Amino acid sequence: MSGEDVLLLSLLARGLLVEQIARELVTSPRTVRRRTASVCSALGVRTPVEAVVWAVRNDLV
Q1: Which of 9, 12, 34, 45 has its CA 20 to 30 A from that of 19?
Q2: pTM value?
Q3: How far is residue 43's CA from residue 26's CA, in Å, rounded to a whole number?
Q4: What CATH number is given for 3-57 in this structure?
Q5: How far apart are the C-alpha atoms of 13 and 48, rounded to whole Å?
């Protein structure tokens, strides 16, 4: 998992919306959605909430 993936998970964990994350990362909301889906797939989870839970349990965020 890349540093950008961990950053995305930490922003999701803070409760930011897709649009807010896009502004923070200087990218488009569509890119944020795609990256989130990619992270979920890589972790073997179905939702961003499950991805955040996984990250917390594994001390990434």
Answers
A1: 45
A2: 0.91
A3: 24
A4: 1.10.10
A5: 9
Amino acid (one-letter) located at 31: T
Q: Does 7 score more than 90 pLDDT?
A: yes
pLDDT at residue 24, rounded to an integer = 96
39 within 8 A of 9, measured Cβ to Cβ:
yes
Q: If you ran DSSP here, which 8-state letter would residue 59 be given?
A: T
CA 49, 9, 16: angle at the middle one, nearest 5?
A: 75
Gap between the terminal Cα atoms of the chain: 13
pLDDT value for 1: 86
Residue pair 52/9 in contact (Cβ under 8 Å)? The answer is yes
